[in-house]
Amino acid sequence: MMCNYGSSEYAQAFxxxxxxxxxxxxxNEDLELQDAKFAKxxxxxxxxxxxxxxxxxxxxxxxxGRGGIIAGHHFSxxxxxxxxxxxxxxxxxxxxxxxxxxxxxxRPLLRHTDQFMKLATFVIPPQSKESxxxxxxxxxxxxxxxNHFIDASPPGFFLLMLSMQLEGERDLDEQRACLYRxxxxxxxxxxxxxxxx
Length: 197
Known about the structure:
Elements: H1 9-19, E1 33-40, E2 46-55, E3 58-62, H2 73-83, E4 97-105, E5 120-124, E6 129-130, E7 133-134, E8 141-147, E9 158-166, H3 172-185
Antiparallel strand pairs: 1-2, 2-3, 4-9, 5-8, 6-7, 8-9
C-alpha cells in the first residue's frame, strides 16, 4: 500500500493496513509499557500473551491477535530484555533517502474530460524508456497527478509529485537528472526552473 501524506506516509500506510486487522490506536498520548506477559507458543518460541498500558491513568490490557507487537525504539530494548534477546553485533542501521520533485502546471500528464479521471498515480519502472527515450532511473519513479477536484491545486492547474528512492552509490546530481529527463520527455522541459526540490 502506498500513501502520499508527506513525511507521515509510512504511518498512514501502517494505520490503513492495521485497521483491516483490528489494531487499536492511541494517539497524542505518552504511553508507558507497564507489563508484557509472555508465554511459549506452539513452536516453543516466546510470544506476547498480553500487554498492559496506562491511558489517562487507567490501565488497559489487550491481547495481540497474532501474538506480536510493533514498538518504537524506546520499547524495543524492554521487549528484547523480556524475550532474552541480545542486539546482534553486526546490526547496522541503514538510512534511505528519497528525492522528490513537485510541479504545478497547466498541462496534465493524463488528459480526460472527466475531472475525477484526471487524478492519477502510476509507477515508472527502473531503467525504463518513455516515448523511446532512456530515462536512466535506477529505482522506480512514483508519479501522482492531482487537480482542483480534490483541492490540491487552483482551478485550471495540476499538481504533479514525483518521488524516487536514492541509491547511496549513485551521484545525487545524476539521479536528479533522471527526473529532469523524465519531465523533459513528458513535455515539461520549459518548467524545469519551477521545480521545487
